[in-house]
Design brief:
mainly alpha
């Protein structure tokens, strides 16, 4: 949370839920917020699929040409991947499952 947002939150003594409702009144923020939630759900699904099929980050990395560290950062939501990267991850996982 940025310092500006944190200060606003603390100075107005809003609960987190109230603060979220206030932010979601802004249509531009709402679009970004909803798309971020969608991306996080996709990443969570890809990560669960990878783990449940016994595929390591290293295996996926070598299949799609993206470093293991980047895959780790994506799965921990430290970086936001572009659509191309998400597609590479999905296709790479499907290929690795078929190879088993």
């Amino acid at each position: 949370m940025s310092t500006l947002i944190y200060n606003y939150y603390m100075n107005n003594y809003l609960t987190l839920e109230e603060f979220e409702k206030e932010l979601l009144k802004d249509d531009d923020f709402k679009v970004v917020y909803k798309s971020s939630q969608m991306v996080a759900k996709i990443i969570y699904s890809l990560s669960n699929f990878r783990k449940s099929n016994g595929i390591s980050q290293e295996q996926l990395s070598s299949k799609i040409g993206i470093s293991q560290k980047v895959i780790s950062n994506i799965e921990r939501l430290k970086v936001s991947p572009n659509l191309d990267t998400l597609c590479k991850m999905k296709i790479g996982l499907e290929i690795l499952v078929k190879e088993k």
